Amino acid sequence: MIGSDKVSTRLRTDRYERQLSGQFQKSDNMVLAIDLLNPTPQAEARKHKLKTLVPAPRSFFMDVKCPGCFTITTVFSHAQTVVICAGCSTVLCQPTGGKARLTEGCSFRRK
Protein backbone atom coordinates (compact mmCIF):
# COMPACT_ATOMS: atom_id res chain seq x y z
CA MET A 1 0.00 0.00 0.00
CA ILE A 2 2.83 2.37 0.71
CA GLY A 3 4.21 1.97 -2.83
CA SER A 4 0.85 2.71 -4.47
CA ASP A 5 0.44 5.79 -2.28
CA LYS A 6 3.80 7.11 -3.50
CA VAL A 7 2.78 6.48 -7.12
CA SER A 8 -0.54 8.32 -6.80
CA THR A 9 1.18 11.25 -5.07
CA ARG A 10 3.79 11.39 -7.83
CA LEU A 11 1.10 11.31 -10.54
CA ARG A 12 -0.74 14.18 -8.87
CA THR A 13 2.40 16.31 -8.57
CA ASP A 14 3.42 15.49 -12.16
CA ARG A 15 0.01 16.60 -13.44
CA TYR A 16 0.17 19.78 -11.34
CA GLU A 17 3.64 20.61 -12.70
CA ARG A 18 2.41 20.11 -16.29
CA GLN A 19 -0.50 22.43 -15.57
CA LEU A 20 1.86 25.11 -14.28
CA SER A 21 4.23 24.76 -17.21
CA GLY A 22 1.38 25.09 -19.73
CA GLN A 23 1.73 21.65 -21.34
CA PHE A 24 -2.04 21.18 -21.30
CA GLN A 25 -3.50 22.67 -24.42
CA LYS A 26 -6.64 24.76 -24.43
CA SER A 27 -8.22 22.43 -27.02
CA ASP A 28 -8.47 19.69 -24.38
CA ASN A 29 -11.61 21.36 -22.97
CA MET A 30 -14.85 19.94 -24.31
CA VAL A 31 -17.62 22.23 -25.51
CA LEU A 32 -21.23 21.49 -24.58
CA ALA A 33 -23.75 21.02 -27.38
CA ILE A 34 -26.28 23.30 -25.66
CA ASP A 35 -25.91 26.63 -23.90
CA LEU A 36 -26.89 26.10 -20.26
CA LEU A 37 -26.83 29.79 -19.39
CA ASN A 38 -29.11 30.96 -22.21
CA PRO A 39 -31.73 28.25 -22.86
CA THR A 40 -34.29 28.67 -25.63
CA PRO A 41 -37.88 29.51 -24.63
CA GLN A 42 -39.03 26.17 -26.05
CA ALA A 43 -36.57 24.30 -23.83
CA GLU A 44 -37.69 26.30 -20.78
CA ALA A 45 -41.36 25.52 -21.50
CA ARG A 46 -40.66 21.77 -21.58
CA LYS A 47 -38.83 21.72 -18.24
CA HIS A 48 -40.35 21.16 -14.81
CA LYS A 49 -41.24 24.37 -12.98
CA LEU A 50 -38.42 23.90 -10.46
CA LYS A 51 -35.75 22.87 -13.00
CA THR A 52 -35.93 26.02 -15.10
CA LEU A 53 -33.17 28.64 -15.01
CA VAL A 54 -35.30 30.79 -12.69
CA PRO A 55 -37.70 28.55 -10.74
CA ALA A 56 -41.21 29.99 -10.72
CA PRO A 57 -44.74 28.63 -10.31
CA ARG A 58 -46.91 28.10 -13.37
CA SER A 59 -50.15 28.78 -11.54
CA PHE A 60 -51.82 32.17 -11.31
CA PHE A 61 -54.90 34.01 -10.11
CA MET A 62 -57.39 35.34 -12.63
CA ASP A 63 -60.45 37.55 -12.68
CA VAL A 64 -63.38 35.68 -14.22
CA LYS A 65 -66.38 37.63 -15.49
CA CYS A 66 -69.75 35.91 -15.20
CA PRO A 67 -71.61 35.86 -18.55
CA GLY A 68 -74.99 36.31 -16.86
CA CYS A 69 -74.62 39.11 -14.29
CA PHE A 70 -71.14 40.42 -15.29
CA THR A 71 -69.74 40.22 -11.74
CA ILE A 72 -66.02 39.61 -11.45
CA THR A 73 -64.77 36.76 -9.27
CA THR A 74 -61.11 36.00 -8.47
CA VAL A 75 -60.30 32.36 -9.21
CA PHE A 76 -57.09 30.33 -8.82
CA SER A 77 -55.95 28.73 -12.09
CA HIS A 78 -55.60 25.30 -10.49
CA ALA A 79 -58.79 25.47 -8.40
CA GLN A 80 -59.77 22.10 -6.95
CA THR A 81 -63.40 22.95 -6.21
CA VAL A 82 -66.28 24.15 -8.35
CA VAL A 83 -66.38 27.97 -8.33
CA ILE A 84 -69.88 29.47 -8.36
CA CYS A 85 -70.83 33.08 -9.10
CA ALA A 86 -71.94 34.94 -5.96
CA GLY A 87 -74.54 36.97 -7.87
CA CYS A 88 -76.44 34.45 -9.98
CA SER A 89 -75.13 31.04 -8.76
CA THR A 90 -73.88 29.87 -12.17
CA VAL A 91 -70.82 27.63 -12.36
CA LEU A 92 -67.74 29.62 -13.44
CA CYS A 93 -65.15 26.83 -13.54
CA GLN A 94 -64.83 23.12 -12.85
CA PRO A 95 -61.74 21.31 -11.56
CA THR A 96 -59.75 18.89 -13.69
CA GLY A 97 -56.55 17.04 -12.85
CA GLY A 98 -54.51 20.21 -13.35
CA LYS A 99 -55.85 23.58 -14.38
CA ALA A 100 -59.49 24.44 -13.79
CA ARG A 101 -61.74 24.43 -16.87
CA LEU A 102 -63.72 27.62 -17.42
CA THR A 103 -67.32 27.29 -18.56
CA GLU A 104 -68.18 28.54 -22.04
CA GLY A 105 -68.92 32.23 -22.23
CA CYS A 106 -66.77 33.19 -19.24
CA SER A 107 -64.05 35.71 -20.00
CA PHE A 108 -60.95 36.02 -17.84
CA ARG A 109 -57.82 38.07 -17.39
CA ARG A 110 -54.65 37.04 -15.67
CA LYS A 111 -53.74 38.97 -12.52
From TrEMBL:
Gene Ontology CC terms, in alphabetical order: ribonucleoprotein complex; ribosome
Entry note: cofactor: Binds 1 zinc ion per subunit.
Organism from which the protein derives: Cladophialophora carrionii
GO biological process: translation
Listed name of the protein: 40S ribosomal protein S27
Phylogenetic lineage: Eukaryota, Fungi, Dikarya, Ascomycota, Pezizomycotina
Domain of life the protein comes from: Eukaryota
Transmembrane segments: none
Pfam family, one: Ribosomal_S27e
GO MF assignments: structural constituent of ribosome; zinc ion binding
Keyword set, alphabetical order: Metal-binding, Ribonucleoprotein, Ribosomal protein, Zinc, Zinc-finger
InterPro entries: Ribosomal_eS27, Ribosomal_eS27_Zn-bd_dom_sf, Ribosomal_zn-bd
Keyword Lipid metabolism attached: no
Recorded family membership: Belongs to the eukaryotic ribosomal protein eS27 family.
Cofactors: Zn(2+)
